[in-house]
Give the backbone structure.
Amino acid sequence: MIVVVATRDEVMAVQSRLDDLGVGAVRVVEPSADRRLLLAPVQGESAAEHLAATLRAEGRIAVTRPDDGPRLEGWMRHTLPITFGDRLSVCFAWCEHDRSALPGLIELGLGGFGNGGHVTTRLLIEQLMARIRGGELVLDVGCGSGVLALSAVRLGASLVVAVDNHADAVEATRRNAVLNGMDDRIGATIAALEQIEGTYDAVVANVGRAAIVELAPQLIRLLSPNGWLAVSGFSPSVCSLVAEFLLPLEELERHVSGEWSALVLGRVDRRAQEPT
Ligand SMILES: C[S@@+](CC[C@H](N)C(=O)[O-])C[C@H]1O[C@@H](n2cnc3c(N)ncnc32)[C@H](O)[C@@H]1O
């Protein structure tokens, strides 16, 4: 079986293309008002993979999926939307579950790390949910799929610069920005942080200890005076070490979830705390 992602307006064109490719008996699923999924039976896994690849080469989001049985049950569990509080939800574009009532939905296409399911991603999404007030300029370092950039915009950020050192992550973020109608508010680049100018109200970096240590001077430089930096991707045992590399930023919060942790840091104005 293959699943082809379309909008309501694209259904006829996709159906006609599948027809040209010799695929019939297409079933259309409507998981939300605008999203349509065309499920097409294809005999054999390699034929299905080949067909999905052909459609992807034409710019469509197309994936193979199990026909039935325990593998389909596993697939359905794996594609369940993830909801964060009452303001944000994330799912794959090919998710067949009803998502019409989900709050602040973000859809993800193919490529790039991060579907919201990993603890380190969740720790930073929780910071975005707690701290984004609206109108912020955000820097997403190590954007992967762009899930943090997309979340920031969904929560009210004005603009996000998303950076990754892998071209496929940058491409995935750009595609996901278009998929969610956010390409006017998210700019993705492979540029090194040294080349990024200005300062940001919020900087998020789920890149692991080694990259945070390597990028620390840039992360500090790029944070605006009243901004906050949230980093993740390291074990609780190295939190203090990571925080030391980010001095003179001060640790504001530390969050631990199982084997993973996140730090939130900012500039603390000591003079403002001195008694007058
Ligand atoms: C764990 S993924 C995080 C993806 C997404 N931001 C999330 O939170 O789910 C880490 C990403 O950081 C990128 N990365 C690692 N080191 C980097 C560096 N020095 N500069 C830019 N990106 C980096 C990787 O390519 C990868 O896409």
In short: The chain has a mean pLDDT of 95. The longest strand covers residues 223-234.
